[in-house]
Amino acid sequence: MEIFRAKYGVAFDVGPFVIQKRSFPDWAASGDWTPATGDTKISKDYGNVANATNNPAAIGGTGSTGWKLTLTSTEMQAARIFGQVVDAATKAVEDYAFVVVTYGHPSAADPFDFSKSLFDQLQPDAGIAQAGGGNSITLRAGAPSFDLTGYVVCTGAGTGKEQFRRITAYNTTTKVATVASAWDVVPDNTTDYVVIIA
Description:
Thrombin, subunit H; 1 helix; mainly beta; 2 domains
């Protein structure tokens, strides 16, 4: 079994990998096996296995025995994805298994995004709020376009200063962050804030 690391919620090519021919020491090339619907299944976070959207595809080139499998962005929305490739009908190849461990999202196995700097992740946003509500704050217009759910927003200077709330929902379009409990003093467009990883 192979283990891969990939970003949460982003389509990912598992591989390259090789599959051994059944009862032979040789690796399978495209002429040895044609994957069929149902041969490839995945389990997201230990849930029931289900057919994967795609089957393995042979990597081209003379003499190639390499394969890849594209998991969709929806299939990548889990902390861990277990995959199995089993030639159920012809048994032309040996079984193959893999695990994808995700990063870069609060629901991933590792919330840190290795494609970004540590500083950006510890403090993904700061600025002056556009507005506030009983249990929300509208971050600046240029606030991140990635999900901030699970992060903590801290208010600094201005109305409603020195409060800390966990973000329970975040609209990447409107920049409205819903917080876990009502503000003691509702922030407004004078409120400095910083968003940090919890």
